[in-house]
Amino acid sequence: MARPEPLYIRPANWVRQQIREGHLAPGASAPTERELAKQFGISRDTAGRSLELLVSEGLLTPGNTRAGRKVRNTRVLPIHASHSEQMERRRSAGVDAWVSDTQEAGREPGQAIDVRVVQAIEEIARWLEIEADTPVAVRRRVRTLDGEPSNTATTYYSMDIAREVPEILDPGDVKQGVLALMAEHGYVTEHYVDALRWRPPTPEEAASLGIGQGVAVLIQSRTGYQDGHPIHITQTVWPGNTIELRYELPA
Amino acid sequence: MARPEPLYIRPANWVRQQIREGHLAPGASAPTERELAKQFGISRDTAGRSLELLVSEGLLTPGNTRAGRKVRNTRVLPIHASHSEQMERRRSAGVDAWVSDTQEAGREPGQAIDVRVVQAIEEIARWLEIEADTPVAVRRRVRTLDGEPSNTATTYYSMDIAREVPEILDPGDVKQGVLALMAEHGYVTEHYVDALRWRPPTPEEAASLGIGQGVAVLIQSRTGYQDGHPIHITQTVWPGNTIELRYELPA
DNA sequence: TAGTGGTCTAGACCACACT
DNA sequence: GTGTGGTCTAGACCACTAG
Prior knowledge:
The structure is a homodimer. By secondary structure, the first copy, chain A, is of the alpha+beta class. Chain A contains nine helices and eight strands. Chain A folds into two domains: 9-56, Winged helix-like DNA-binding domain superfamily/Winged helix DNA-binding domain (Arc Repressor Mutant, subunit A), CATH 1.10.10; 77-246, Chorismate lyase (3-Layer(aba) Sandwich), CATH 3.40.1410. In chain A, 31% of the residues lie in helices and 31% in strands. The A-B interface holds A 56-58, 76, 78, 81-82, 188-200, 213-214, 216, 218, 224, 240-241, 243-251 and B 56-58, 76, 78, 81-82, 188-200, 213-214, 216, 218, 224, 240-241, 243-251. Strand 5 (191-199) of chain A pairs antiparallel with strand 8 (243-250) of chain B. The structure holds a DNA duplex.
């Protein structure tokens, strides 16, 4: 006998369809585990698995409080990770890439910046080609989409550079952009390397992005080089299911 | 009172450490759920959650047979998705990118090719700018790393092109490479667009890649353009945790 | 304060593939 | 044949927060 379809599949399909057909709009409450259990004649535990499946697909928020699970907005936002035309437009307008990509999609960007000096962990030290535990300047941006947390971008600069370009440690927005300021001081980014990894979120990442443990995050590590040496690195944590990264490449 | 640490965390940490310290080598059997339950004085269900956590981190195979869960090889393989120097070397040597990237890392590549003609699903049709359900030529490569399934790359060509370049429908390796052959017939890829999405694997993907439901896959959709029109698209399914995709970009 | 999801248990049945 | 993980149940306790 073939393995029978698990009982938690059918309720999951039903809820998924309710969402697809618009009977459950973004922001609405999903059925509770107890409701779903009664409706399908299954145990609460099994109903929970159904809903957890949808959380791991990014369709529902985890919701471990009385408010319960909510339907998430699953529109996909294209991010132009490399697109010469785009980059030109941004640089001339002095507009952050995050802002231009979201506004182009008719959505509402937001950003909160936070500045610190920390000891470099091993991974960051390796990218920056410095010793681990060396102090580095950190600018962390928590970015929101339509008011919801969307991704975090953390940029690391060596303290040598931060001393020459003191605006790096200014909390809040830097008008011209940090890269333009660095260029004025002779630190010109000549090329980038993006390294992409994806994995389950840490509990901290899941909390700060409002996603379940089952939604993978992609870590985009973008290192900027001058004369073959790294001068800054930005690690962006993108949640799955709602983002599409695009790279335009020559043949 | 703060929420106490769930009971399944500690056994998971212990097994993870056993792996890290080499007491459990790749290929070895992980503790069974019943063993772990007895050892930590927890129920089998809870022990199962511990091991599932490690499966979702990619450290263990799912193993739903008597053989049990095994320790996976978690060495990370860097893939050069765009690296001009690399690309030059490949093209001149006529070597597949998969082969060169793996061998450079001192590992053993393998590849099985399978050719079909199918009706284009909506997504593929959109990328190729054709009508859905139009027949397309499909070359599907299941690629292995050190003998284990690693990723699948599926390339779609319109039948117009496949008729002019009949080698596209040759099962097995095409010596010079399909792109070079296409170029001889006037189909020259002038630039690429890579679109990246990541999500939980479908059951089929999980089975063919030998991963658990918790290991996210990244879908790399690479479209090749000539005169602004798409002439082929390759969708590669990469499992998480073992792959790093790298893009080298100009400023 | 009441209802939510998160966690945990003890027990059960099953398909499956090693042996 | 036998032990594996996958699934399922009924019940329980808990921290948390919306109302």
